[in-house]
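Subject: Sanity check before I submit

Could someone independently write out the structure tokens for this chain? I want to compare against mine line by line before I put it in a report. The sequence has 197 residues.
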Amino acid sequence: MADNTVTITDNRNGQQAKFDIIDPTIGKSSIDVRQLSSKLGLFTYDPGFQATASCKSEITYIDGEAGILRYRGYPIEQLAQHSNYMEVSYLLMYGELPDDSQYQNFFDSIKNHTIVHESLMQFITGFHNDAHPMAIMVGVVGALSAFYHDSAAALIQDGVIVAAAQEERFTRIKHDHEFPAKAIQYCLDEAGIGPSD
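---
Independent answer below. Compare away.
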């Protein structure tokens, strides 16, 4: 079986180094050049990222030249025509479109957490009527922490959410703002690790 690497040779001095090839689900393979500087003392030059993969994603696939945008393997056109916002949100979070039961549970959960504090609504109406939407959004998102200061914890491993919980789930105190000790312990238990790990 062939070695899934590529060898780069510096023709000035004959120095060589092997680099792993990363094969995607869709699209062109990439050379992992993170050790290029330490192995050969070189950097890559790619203005505009025309031949560079900037990240590894299990969520999005983009090929700008071909006009392709996919979320979790689904073409954006298909999602726009046949799915609603909540279904796409579920897809992005969990990797699959929801069945009817999953959709209803997800919808109810989101609905229960979307009640907007009346004072926040007054904050929004305080913007001038021709204020730029981005300026309003930045202001409102910043203000949210003054209204909703729940205490929560999340454990993310290699870009994947392993566990997440709000402290109020354990204390049964609505909008509990205390240090999320129970939520942290829950996340560690779910991952099967301890605080020292």
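---
OP: Matches mine. For the report I'm noting this point. Helices lie at 36-40, 76-82, 85-94, 100-112, 118-125, 133-147, 168-171, 181-191.
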